Amino acid sequence: GELLARADREAPHAGVYELEFNVRYQDGGYRSLEAARQGEFHGGFGIHIGADEVPLGSRTWGAGESYLLWLNLDTRSRTAIEYPEHYGMRAQVYRSESSTEMELVENVDIAEMLGLSVADLEPFLHMDVPVRLRVDNRSGEVRVYDPTMPNVYAWLELEPGTLNGRYISLRTNSLSAGFSNMQARPAN
Questions:
Q1: How far is the C-alpha of 17 from the C-alpha of 4, rounded, in Å?
Q2: Taking the model in full, what pTM does it have?
Q3: Which of 71, 115, 137, 186 sits most deeply, having the most CB atoms within 10 A of its CB?
Q4: Alpha helices of the chain — where are they, by DSSP H?
Q5: Is 155 exposed, middle or buried (0-12, 13-18, 19+ CB in 10 A)?
Q6: With helix as H, strand as E and coil as C, how does 108-127 read?
Q7: Are strands 167-173 and 42-51 parallel, antiparallel or unpaired?
Q8: Which residues make beta-bridge pairs with 144?
Q9: How high is the pLDDT of residue 59?
Q10: Within 10 Å of residue 43's Cβ, how many Cβ atoms?
Q11: Which has the closest alpha carbon to 42: 10, 76, 67?
Q12: Residue 5's pLDDT band (cuts 50, 70, 90)
């Protein structure tokens, strides 16, 4: 985890709440222009929810006890061979135990499931893409809304006790992204 960036914010984590923000790809996600021409991409972004601590002043990929909801694109041939569970376009959920201990608990190949290709991402480059989550920390239900169809969502059942921290953290890995219009509020 050398190329990780994180932005933390205190947010309400009681009962049912919604998180919204925009994400915009800026740059990166490939080692060189030659790698990009060959289709060798690697980059991701996501959000830690329910973080009970935000470690400062050290490199970290976890955030205390929390969950990291992560979108990752990794088309490097080395990944296909050595870490096939991370290859492709993935929606992943990690359970964080500390600033350095994370466990992959959900791993969905969204490209395969939805029939998407890397080229299908191009229209979303360099534009604000709205992200909306609804979290119920009593039941553990988390809804992740489709940015292209606002009433369609995927849902997760997570451990409620791990969702009750006071912080959220936006993260990136191996790419530059801009986040804007962050809102955290109790759900109606």
A1: 27
A2: 0.90
A3: 137
A4: 33-37, 77-82, 110-114
A5: exposed
A6: EEHHHHHCCCHHHHHHHCCC
A7: antiparallel
A8: 133, 154
A9: 66
A10: 20
A11: 76
A12: low
In the prediction, which pLDDT does 1 show? 39
d(CA 170, CA 98): 16
- Asked whether residue 180 carries a pLDDT value surpassing 70, the answer given is yes
Contact 178, 23 (CB under 8 A): yes
- With CA atoms as reference, report the closest residue to 23 among 43, 45, 1, 4: 45
Burial class (CB in 10 A: 0-12, 13-18, 19+), 68: buried
Residue 182: is it exposed, middle or buried by C-beta count within 10 angstroms (0-12/13-18/19+)?
middle
Q: Tell me the one-letter amino acid at 160.
A: P
Cα 24 versus chain centre, distance = 13
The percent of residues above 70 in pLDDT, for the chain, comes to: 93
